Amino acid sequence: MNQIRGLLVSAPAMLREQVSGLGRAAPIRTLARLRPGNDLSGPLAATRASLRRPARRHQAMDHEITELDAAETARIAAHLDRAGLPRA
Q1: Among 12, 14, 3, which residue's Cα sits nearest to residue 54?
Q2: In angstroms, rounded to a whole number, what is the distance separating the alpha carbons of residues 61 and 49?
Q3: What total number of domains does the chain contain?
Q4: Measured between alpha carbons, how far is 20 from 9 in angstroms, rounded to an integer?
Q5: d(Cα 86, Cα 3) in Å, to the nearest integer?
Q6: Residue 51 CB: number of other CB atoms within 10 A?
Q7: pTM surpassing 0.85?
Q8: Is 7 inside a domain boundary?
Q9: Environment class of 31 (CB within 10 Å of its CB; exposed 0-12, middle 13-18, buried 19+)
Q10: pLDDT per residue rounded down to tens, the chain (88 residues)
Q11: 84/82 Cα distance (integer angstroms)
Q12: Whole domain around residue 23: which residue ranges?
């Protein structure tokens, strides 16, 4: 997220305005959907590509964390059941 914020500071105003005022998750979704195009020689397209990559990594890591949390919750529940302890 810090890398994305850093890139947004120097991003063209059009890109900054796209994500300004959005909540916490909405900018990541918005930036992950950017379509920079094939010609990255211009500042707008290059910045779009630069913002899209870390936004997609952020989404992938968030998904992985969600999966790991679910697996850990299931393991804890199984241990509690085996020990005959109530679930909180």
Answers
A1: 3
A2: 19
A3: 1
A4: 11
A5: 43
A6: 25
A7: no
A8: yes
A9: buried
A10: 889 999 999 999 999 999 998 888 899 999 999 999 999 999 999 999 999 999 999 999 999 999 999 999 999 999 999 999 998 7
A11: 5
A12: 2-83
CA distance 88 to 84: 13
54 occurs within a structural domain? yes
**Two tokens, residue 54:** 């870390």
Which alpha helices (DSSP H) does 10-42 contain, by range?
13-19, 25-32
Residue 4, classed as helix, strand or coil, is helix
88 in any annotated domain: no
In contact, 43 and 12? CB cutoff 8 Å: yes
Tokens of 22: 């959005």
Residue with tokens 């950017």, as numbered in its chain: 34
